[in-house]
Design brief:
- The mean pLDDT is about 95.
- The radius of gyration is 23 Å and the shape is globular.
- Strand 10, helix 9 and strand 11 form a beta-alpha-beta unit.
- By secondary structure, the chain is of the alpha/beta class.
- Helix 3 crosses helix 4.
- The protein is built from 15 helices and 20 strands.
Length: about 450
């Protein structure tokens, strides 16, 4: 059985029967039949399903948000925003997707022509995490529908209610049975699912270890894989920055989604000229973060997603102190039912140490002083990850310096880093490879077939 638990109370929400091998096989066979129909479907049929999904997510926003908050603790206002963002992605591909599938033409040197045509591949497996339970899966689902592929989802065990509801909504939108199915399973059978000839590719958002396992298995069977893994993103603040806004956003970056976001700044790197002023304001603002019932509209920090995740972060804080880091405040367990802990902040983090190079997936930040922008860049890049980054500066030369220098898939200026529907999203180094969103994400799991017409 797979059990979901309310992290705010520790109470059991529901129990789900885990699929056995025969049930998994039946799901994959259903996916194969659905693909045989969907791959040849008219583009108007695909965009109609996408448009209806956008409408359904908006119409059911409150119920969907409350379900996510109940299962993984996300503050309700953020859960509503996540659902709305999913609706916007469906609508975007419904309205702007068809031109992204148009063929490309090239004139050949011998007088002939060639055509590049985007064609679907087949059933794709998505292994998705709990931290943005709708958005991570929809980021895969929307382009899957538009491309003419079908999706098989292995969602995180703690958000099985979300996964089941997502599958229902796809059917409510008029999609054929099997276009999008959830596999209610643990991680154990996933290697066999990847190996199955009916699965043509895989995508994973999650931990470095999970990504390595999926990529290894996919590579063994010569299947394409897209990975969005961990990040320990730098949040760089230079002297020309709007300090008030930078402090506000630095706090948001550390407590958004209860500190469980891959691309929000985890390491705040501040130029020495403004460090003392920034640090004073940052510490004060972090201490004032409102912790409370995740169902309350004014809550900024709720529980961690599970007691296991909470305890992992607490262990990292303890190891940081052993390593010589200074815990300025917080980072402590709250003695109450559920998965609660306080926000916290570490300083004196040695470069190259375990704390400085690991991802702390919780509401505990790291604060660094940089003597100049060269040292700020050195600190920013002193990690094995390269997902996102944020730089606060109003100086154009600084912007160019960090735009070219930071080793990451994304750099956002003067705002909290976040994924944008219209722009490619993904990382480098140990944060994975491949891109999601925009036309680049759409084309990742499509066959760019070349048709040659001789002169």
């Amino acid at each position: 059985m797979i059990t979901t638990t309310n992290p705010a109370t520790g109470e059991t929400i529901a129990e789900y029967e885990e699929l056995d091998r025969n049930a998994i096989d039946a799901k994959l066979e259903t996916a194969t039949r659905a693909y045989a129909d969907w791959k040849d479907s008219a583009i108007e049929r695909r965009t109609d399903v996408l448009a209806k999904l956008g409408d359904l997510y908006r119409a059911n926003k409150e119920d969907l948000a409350r379900l996510a908050t109940t299962e993984m603790g996300k503050p309700i206002t953020q859960a509503r925003a996540e659902v709305e963002k999913c609706a916007s992605l469906f609508t975007y591909f419904a309205e702007h997707g068809p031109p992204l599938l148009k063929s490309e033409q090239w004139d050949l040197a011998d007088g002939g022509t060639a055509e590049g045509r985007w064609l679907p591949l087949g059933p794709v497996l998505a292994v998705m995490p709990w931290n943005f339970p709708y958005w991570q899966a929809v980021r895969f689902l929307a382009p899957t529908i538009l491309a003419g592929n079908v999706g098989v989802l292995k969602h995180a065990s703690i958000v099985q209610g979300v996964a089941a509801r997502m599958e229902e909504l796809v059917l409510e939108a008029g999609a054929p049975e099997g276009l999008f199915q959830n596999l209610c399973v643990s991680s154990d059978p996933i290697a066999d699912v990847i190996a199955d000839s009916r699965i043509v590719a895989a995508t994973l958002t999650g931990s470095e270890g999970a990504g390595s396992a999926v990529a290894s298995q996919a590579g063994k069977y010569l299947k394409k894989v897209v990975l969005e893994l961990g990040g320990s993103d730098p949040f760089v603040v230079m002297p020309s920055a709007d300090i008030d806004q930078a402090v506000k956003d630095a706090v948001t970056a550390r407590v958004q989604n209860n500190g469980q976001s891959c691309i929000c700044g985890k390491r705040t790197i501040v130029h020495a000229d403004i460090y003392d002023d920034f640090a004073d304001r940052f510490v004060k603002a972090m201490k004032e973060v409102k912790l409370g019932d995740p169902m309350a509209d004014d809550t900024e920090l709720g529980p961690m997603s599970s007691t296991q995740q909470r305890d992992t972060v607490l262990d990292q804080v303890a190891k940081a102190k052993e390593e010589g880091c200074t815990l300025i405040f917080g980072g402590e367990k709250i003695e109450r039912d559920g998965a609660w802990m306080t926000a916290g902040l570490l300083t004196d983090v040695p470069l190259g140490g375990e704390t400085g190079t690991d991802e702390i997936f919780g509401p505990v930040g790291q604060l660094y002083r940089a003597k100049d922008r060269d040292e700020a860049l050195t600190i920013a890049n002193a990690i094995p990850f390269g997902l996102g980054s944020a730089v606060w500066t109003r100086d154009d030369d600084d912007k160019e310096f960090f735009a070219n220098g930071i080793e990451a898939g994304m750099t956002t200026f003067n705002a909290v880093n976040g994924s944008k529907i219209e722009a490619p999203f993904g990382g480098i180094k140990r944060s994975g490879h491949g891109r999601e969103l925009s036309r680049f994400g759409l084309h990742e799991f499509m066959n760019l077939k070349t048709l040659v017409h001789p002169a």
